[in-house]
């Protein structure tokens, strides 16, 4: 029920993100979502892509430090309050969210969540009949 | 003293020194025998080129007392230089050594214009470092009043400068600038204090720093040079002309050599500075290689002194860096990085000077296997390295995590330092 997120280590330097996107483009890999976590001197680019294995391979070949992280992706109805309901549920189950980011896809707003406990998180989401997205659906 | 008289004195002292070390220091006797040189071969100061060199490594290899010539009963004090790579350097002084030291220090202070009625603050560190005690006894010997401030507690220091009407100060040039900043912060200015003379040394500094210190503290700043292996502060000093530093060459005989061929170079040519301690008893050294690069100048100075002068230190013949007055070798940083599997064995030291304070950045590459998606653990990795570096090189470094393969690889001997400071 989890999907694989590609994380890439980047120095804070002009053109680094661009370098990643160019490599993915050259290999015909589609970026569905991304988020940038940054400190004053380095950043971690987190990507949801159409072809995980190939992304890792081409980025590593270009000398990037790359790793895969399990994340949970849910599809919320694109109406006010739908995310609040889901997050309430996670809070009730004492699931801590390390980070999250969202992207729109058709009728739905997709939210990528990195919880402290993946299994517990999926359980909680299933209990509230939340629509959990699996990778191949992209 | 004429040049001929000086050479005669140096020749006499060198002969005596060579006899002394030959019979008291097995290290030198063995070296001289291996070179087939006996004390009788040394008849004048020109014969010094026949003698062996001494290096910092020799001092380390013979730790702690291997190069000491005087018996332990004659040693009255010991100083030690930082021993962050391997053994520290231990230097023992006899009573006569201390008397020579305070004499040469007093000469320096006299050249700076210090008089008996001056009150002089010594703000070099007191302790194993030679700066504090070396300057201290020089001031006492001259007959001025010494205030042994040492380092730290700058607010109190400034109050003393004001309230005790302190007229002179000995410290590192960076500390002088820090003092000026603290003065500002306390809402005071140079009008509130009466500093007249600054004796600055222990680290390289620029003419711009001199101008700024002089402007902000309202004093005249003089360069003082020394190194603990030879004696401590007081080896050479600037006079009122400030055209090179006069060497106390009746005690410390200077040469310039080509660091590659080890040949002696004529005055005026740049090379590595070498000293022979003509009168030292505790740990006399023959032709000690300072690794400092500069030139020697002969000819009478406008101040009237005839002693040889050394120009500004323009660099090092090894890769040692002096950062905030502390000696740092890239190999120390390397040893820390090699111990940590999180990092590639590639690194770059970037040294700069920001607002007159030296900065050190250590760039390292994170190994692909150790990269984490979690910012917190990446920052913890960075802090682990910063803490280890601090414990080894004693100054704090800013660690910068770099992408794999982003630090330039060089063929052969790696380039590990970018020094952006201007001298």
Describe the protein in words.
The complex is a heterodimer of chains A (138) and B (423). Chain A has two domains: 3-68, 2-Layer Sandwich (VC0802-like); 70-137, VC0802-like (2-Layer Sandwich), CATH 3.30.2130. Chain A is built from four helices and seven strands, in the order E-H-E-E-H-E-H-E-E-H-E. Chain A has helices at residues 16-26, 52-61, 82-92, 118-127, and strands at residues 3-11, 31-38, 42-49, 66-77, 97-105, 108-115, 131-133. The longest helix of chain A has 11 residues, at 16-26. In chain B, strand 3, helix 5 and strand 4 (145-147) form a beta-alpha-beta unit. In chain B, helix 9 crosses helix 10. Chain B has two domains: 90-318, ANL, N-terminal domain (Rossmann fold, 3-Layer(aba) Sandwich); 323-419, GMP Synthetase, Chain A, domain 3 (2-Layer Sandwich), CATH 3.30.300.30. Chain B contains ten helices and 21 strands. The interface between A and B is medium-sized, with 21 and 17 residues.
Relevant terms:
heterodimer; A: 138 residues; VC0802-like; 2 domains; 7 strands; B: 423 residues; Rossmann fold; GMP Synthetase, Chain A, domain 3; 10 helices; 26% strand; globular
Please give a quick description of this structure.
The complex is a heterodimer of chains A (138) and B (423). With 138 residues, chain A is α+β, with helices and mostly antiparallel strands.
User: What is the helix content of chain A?
Assistant: 25-40%
Tell me the total number of β-strands of chain B: 21
Q: Assign the CATH class of the largest domain in chain B.
A: Alpha Beta
Output the number of helix runs of chain B: 10
Q: The biggest beta sheet of chain A, please? A: 7 strands, antiparallel
Oligomer: heterodimer
CATH superfamily of the largest domain in chain B: ANL, N-terminal domain
| Rg of chain A, Å, rounded | 16 Å
CATH architecture of the largest domain in chain A: 2-Layer Sandwich
Query: What is the number of independent domains of chain A?
Result: 2
Count of domains of chain B: 2
CATH topology descriptor of the largest domain in chain B: Rossmann fold
Q: Which structural class best describes the helix and strand composition of chain A? A: alpha+beta
Q: What is the level-2 CATH architecture name of the largest domain in chain B?
A: 3-Layer(aba) Sandwich
């Amino acid at each position: 029920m989890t999907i694989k997120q590609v994380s890439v280590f980047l120095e804070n330097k002009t053109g680094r993100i661009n370098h990643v996107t160019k490599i993915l483009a050259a290999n015909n890999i589609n970026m569905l979502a991304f988020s940038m976590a940054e400190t004053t001197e380095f950043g971690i680019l987190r990507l949801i892509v159409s072809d995980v294995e190939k992304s890792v391979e081409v980025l590593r070949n270009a000398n990037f430090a790359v790793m895969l992280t399990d994340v949970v992706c849910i599809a919320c109805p694109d109406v006010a309050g739908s995310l609040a309901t889901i997050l309430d549920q996670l809070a009730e189950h004492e699931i801590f969210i390390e980070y999250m980011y969202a992207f729109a896809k058709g009728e739905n707003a997709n939210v990528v969540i990195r919880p402290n406990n993946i299994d517990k998180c999926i359980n909680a989401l299933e209990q509230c009949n939340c629509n959990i997205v699996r990778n191949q659906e992209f | 003293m004429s040049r001929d008289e000086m050479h005669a004195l140096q020749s006499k002292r060198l002969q005596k020194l060579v006899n002394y070390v030959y019979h008291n220091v097995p290290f030198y006797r063995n070296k001289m025998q291996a070179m087939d040189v006996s004390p009788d071969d040394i008849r004048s100061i020109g014969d010094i080129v026949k003698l062996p060199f001494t290096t910092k490594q020799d001092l380390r290899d013979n730790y702690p007392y291997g190069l000491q010539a005087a018996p332990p009963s004659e040693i009255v004090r010991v100083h030690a230089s930082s021993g962050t790579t391997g053994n520290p350097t231990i230097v023992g002084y006899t009573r006569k050594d201390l008397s020579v030291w305070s004499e040469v220090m007093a000469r320096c202070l006299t050249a700076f214009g210090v008089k008996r009625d001056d009150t002089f603050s010594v703000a070099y560190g007191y302790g194993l470092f030679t700066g504090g005690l070396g300057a201290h006894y020089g001031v006492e010997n001259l007959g001025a009043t010494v205030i042994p401030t040492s380092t730290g507690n700058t607010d109190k220091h400034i109050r003393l400068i004001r309230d005790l009407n302190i007229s002179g100060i000995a410290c590192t040039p960076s500390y002088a600038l820090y003092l000026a900043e603290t003065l500002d912060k306390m809402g005071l200015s140079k009008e509130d204090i009466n500093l007249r003379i600054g004796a600055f040394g222990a680290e390289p500094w620029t003419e711009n720093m001199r101008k700024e210190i002089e402007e902000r503290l309202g004093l005249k700043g003089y360069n003082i040079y020394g190194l603990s292996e030879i004696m401590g502060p007081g080896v050479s000093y600037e006079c009122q002309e400030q055209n090179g530093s006069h060497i106390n060459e009746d005690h410390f005989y200077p040469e310039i050599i080509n660091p590659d061929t080890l040949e002696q170079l004529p005055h005026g040519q740049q090379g590595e500075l070498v000293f022979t301690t003509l009168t030292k008893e505790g740990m006399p050294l023959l032709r000690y290689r300072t690794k400092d690069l500069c030139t020697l100048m002969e000819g009478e100075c406008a101040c009237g002194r005839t002693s040889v002068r050394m120009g500004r230190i323009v660099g090092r013949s090894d890769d040692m860096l002096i950062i905030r007055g502390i000696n740092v070798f890239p190999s120390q940083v390397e040893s820390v990085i090699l111990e940590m599997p999180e990092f590639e064995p590639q690194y770059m030291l970037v040294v700069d000077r920001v607002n007159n304070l030296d900065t050190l950045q250590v760039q390292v590459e994170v190994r692909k296997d150790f990269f984490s998606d979690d910012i917190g653990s990446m920052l913890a990795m960075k802090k682990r390295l910063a803490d280890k570096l601090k414990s080894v090189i004693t100054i704090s470094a800013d660690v910068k995590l770099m992408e794999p393969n982003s630090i330039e690889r060089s063929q052969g001997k790696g380039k590990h330092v970018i020094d952006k400071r201007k001298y």
